[in-house]
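subagent[fold] <- orchestrator: predict structure for attached chain, return tokens only, no commentary.
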Amino acid sequence: MELGDMGILQSELWKKLTADSREGSRAILRLEKKGLIARKKELHDGRWTYRVFAKRRYSTIDSIVDIPCAFCDLIGSCSQTWIMNPNKCEHLTKWLQTQATSARAVTQSVK
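subagent[fold] -> orchestrator:
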């Protein structure tokens, strides 16, 4: 689901899928039983409904496209036994710290 951690209201999902609520509810229950989604009861516009969340997250190339190793001139000689290695690489360390900071910010905004 492109909505990520926000999930989607069941009623909005039916509209996007052009399905009626009866048909959609059955599909949602099957997916929930299989452990692929989670639902959370929510009051929306004065009516009770459910917000649907995907339990699985799929990785995309976007998560690693800017990794410094991809364009490093030393990639052929980079290993644990060489002077230049992933443990000592300043570019990789900086990139990993940036990724960790971004992940923490996302996690905190969801809470």
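orchestrator: received. Logging for downstream: The two ends are 19 Å apart (CA to CA). The beta strands are 8-9, 37-44, 47-54.
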